[in-house]
UniProtKB/TrEMBL annotation:
Entry protein name: FRG domain-containing protein
FRG domain location: 23-123
Database matches in Pfam families: FRG
Length: 252
């Protein structure tokens, strides 16, 4: 990894380590409640009976989702990417992995688990370096690949990935339309995996990622500090249900 793991005991330390490791260049962040988990999208995570996840079930899952989704949609997605984003938004099976341009958003999600025994982690990613390793060099600094704009990403579409004649490509980082209040609030970005089941941190030579680790014993302390800073569920999920829950909490 680009930097050794840094243990974080407070929000102040978190900001200090961001200044030490992420001050220069474009950096994305992802919070995970267990530091042992790899950076794999949900379709590639092991489940009982499927140690490599459900990688070969992506196209059938998309077809079933499309079959039943129309009745719930005010606007039907215009292309395959929009369908995939919609599925990701509703926790469907995709090769997308969520990241954020906000380190505090990532820290909030890292602290959201109920497992008090596990260390949490905020992963830091240099998306430009990941994409260079994947063969995507851009003319301009910070010109990140974009779904629906850069044709190079079409090779990651589900029907292309399943083409037996296609090459196996490395994961890439890309931005997509922030077409929901949740995506805007969370400053959402993505990585996407190709047909090869490969965690983002396993892309050689591993220097595009590094980690800020929150020891299990410090989780409660950092949660309290984030609350003082006004970070709560409604801020990141601006919907009526979370508004009602947030309002109830205000009067406790």
């Amino acid at each position: 990894m680009r930097h050794n793991d840094r243990n974080i005991h407070s929000v102040g330390e978190f900001i200090t380590e961001l200044r030490n490791t992420a001050q220069n260049g474009l950096v994305w962040f992802r919070g995970q409640t267990d530091a042992r988990w790899p950076l794999l999208p949900n379709i590639a995570r092991p489940i009982e009976g499927y140690p490599d996840g459900l990688m070969n079930q992506e196209l059938p899952a998309i077809k079933r989702f499309k079959q039943n989704a129309d009745a719930f949609l005010a606007r039907v997605p215009r292309d395959d990417w929009e369908w995939i984003f919609l599925m990701q938004h509703h926790r469907g099976l995709t090769r997308l992995l969520d990241w954020s341009e906000s380190p505090l958003v990532a820290l909030y999600f890292a602290l959201g688990g109920t497992d008090v025994e596990a260390n949490a982690v905020v992963w830091c990613l240099d998306p430009m370096e990941l994409n260079r390793k994947s063969g995507h060099r851009r003319r301009f600094d910070r010109d990140v690949l974009a779904f629906g704009i850069d044709e190079a990403l079409n090779t990651y579409l589900p029907d292309r990935v399943g083409d037996d004649q296609g090459a196996e490509l490395l994961p890439v980082a890309a931005i997509g339309p922030r077409n929901s209040t949740r995506m805007i609030a969370q400053s959402g970005t993505f990585t996407i995996m190709h047909r090869q089941r490969m965690a983002v941190e396993d892309v050689p030579n591993h220097d595009h990622v590094w980690r800020l680790v929150i020891p299990a014993a410090q989780k409660a302390n950092l949660r309290a500090e984030l609350r003082l800073l006004g970070f709560n569920e409604f801020l990141l999920f601006p919907e009526l249900e979370t508004l009602a829950l947030h309002t109830r909490e205000m009067f406790r």
